[in-house]
């Protein structure tokens, strides 16, 4: 049968990116190593990993857990179930919650918008509990909802037991999962992302300042969240927009606020200075001509259907290669856009990036008589 005669075609292309155009200040850069227990740096547009250290390690996320609390709150707003002006009551459970607080008074009513600000800026545990109880009846029910959404997002190393991030041995996440959660916040609810850039919040005549002190530096940082408990150490996840691009950076397990600031600054600086954007593949670029079986054309064009741009550091620029994988002959009929194979983009210290190879044209099937003649030729020759 023809299926037994099909073969996997693998072609490897080494790309030489001209190093003459690398800025002189990049030539002395050495391999970056974070002092954080875990660190992760990702390009928001492509999901490309720029740096990883223990990115799949289970950690205690502390107040970075509040990103999921906010995600559920934003989703409820987006669906029109509640409004920013709607008010929720402060229960005894919320009023007595330990840790960081917005100083909400018992039995008072607080608007959803102020609760958002209280969670983002003040990291208020009381505000989180108010939200959890209003949306799910209890914090326990809300934690179940958090876990359902985490599972739906594919957060494989995450489990929530509360809305605040207060320590519990069964409350954990990973740098990769937290970055993915931050990405979903940015992508799914851009209309609410503005709250992450607010630098202060006043409630009950008490002003508090955002613990994300990078917001007050000229670095392009416009969110997201810090976290700290005795068990977790100091951590932070930030999003930074610069030169029409956006990166998400994460560090955790540090010993002090100053060390946290220092390490996240080093990671951001590494992303700004160590990488340049290159177009690796162009939309509709012809990659290969593959043989066709039973078609009115003998070959079909294999193309990519989108531009592929990557941020590359010096080692990646020197070692990048492409692998084209597809099986041939490809049996007609073939429709333009059908996935027929893959391009694997491989470069040092990074995960392989897979890009679909698709048909660049339609190939109609021959009539039965011509197919019979071709079959005889195929097996005779």
TrEMBL record:
Checking Pfam families in the record gives:
PBP5_C, Peptidase_S11
Q: Name one GO biological process term.
A: proteolysis
What's its catalytic activity? Preferential cleavage: (Ac)2-L-Lys-D-Ala-|-D-Ala. Also transpeptidation of peptidyl-alanyl moieties that are N-acyl substituents of D-alanine
Q: What is its EC number?
A: 3.4.16.4
Q: Keyword set for this entry?
A: Carboxypeptidase, Cell shape, Cell wall biogenesis/degradation, Hydrolase, Peptidoglycan synthesis, Protease, Signal
Q: In which pathway does it act?
A: Cell wall biogenesis; peptidoglycan biosynthesis
Tell me the ranges covered by the Peptidase S11 D-Ala-D-Ala carboxypeptidase A C-terminal domain, including all copies.
275-365
Molecular function, one GO term:
serine-type D-Ala-D-Ala carboxypeptidase activity
Enzyme type, top EC level: hydrolase
* Job of this protein: Removes C-terminal D-alanyl residues from sugar-peptide cell wall precursors.
Q: Which family does it belong to?
A: Belongs to the peptidase S11 family.
Name of the molecule in the record: serine-type D-Ala-D-Ala carboxypeptidase
Q: Which organism is it from?
A: marine metagenome
């Amino acid at each position: 049968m023809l299926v037994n005669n099909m073969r996997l075609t693998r072609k490897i292309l080494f790309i030489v990116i001209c190093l003459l155009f690398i800025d002189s200040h990049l030539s002395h850069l050495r391999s970056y190593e974070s002092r954080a227990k875990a660190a992760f740096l990702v390009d928001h547009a492509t999901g490309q990993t720029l740096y990883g250290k223990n990115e799949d390690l289970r950690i205690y996320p502390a107040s970075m857990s509040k990103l999921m609390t906010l995600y559920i709150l934003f989703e409820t707003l987006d669906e029109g179930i509640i409004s920013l002006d709607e008010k929720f009551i402060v229960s005894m459970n919320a009023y007595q919650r330990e840790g960081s607080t917005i100083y909400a008074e018992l039995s008072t009513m607080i608007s959803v918008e102020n609760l958002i600000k209280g969670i983002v800026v003040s990291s208020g545990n009381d505000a989180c509990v108010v939200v959890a109880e209003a949306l799910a009846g209890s914090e326990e029910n809300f934690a179940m909802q958090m876990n359902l959404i985490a599972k739906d997002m594919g957060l494989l190393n995450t489990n929530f037991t509360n809305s605040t991030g207060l320590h519990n041995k069964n409350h954990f996440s990973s740098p990769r999962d937290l970055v993915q959660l931050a990405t979903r916040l940015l992508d799914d609810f851009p209309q609410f992302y503005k709250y992450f850039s607010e630098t202060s919040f006043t409630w009950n005549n008490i002003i508090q300042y955002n613990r994300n002190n990078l917001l007050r530096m000229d670095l392009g940082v416009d969110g997201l969240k810090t976290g700290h408990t005795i068990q977790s150490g100091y951590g932070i996840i930030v999003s930074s927009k610069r030169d029409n691009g956006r990166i998400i950076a994460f560090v955790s397990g540090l010993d002090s606020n100053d060390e946290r600031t220092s390490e996240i600054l080093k990671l951001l600086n590494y992303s700004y200075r160590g990488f340049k954007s290159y177009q690796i593949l162009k939309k509709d670029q012809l990659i290969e001509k593959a043989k066709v079986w039973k078609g009115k054309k003998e070959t079909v064009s294999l193309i990519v259907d989108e531009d592929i741009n990557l941020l590359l550091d010096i080692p990646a620029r020197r070692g990048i290669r492409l692998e084209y994988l597809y099986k041939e002959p490809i049996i007609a009929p073939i429709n333009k856009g059908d996935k027929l194979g893959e391009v694997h983009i491989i470069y040092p210290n990074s995960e392989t990036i897979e890009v679909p190879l698709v048909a660049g044209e339609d190939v109609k099937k021959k009539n039965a008589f011509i197919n019979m003649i071709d079959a005889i030729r195929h097996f005779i020759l």
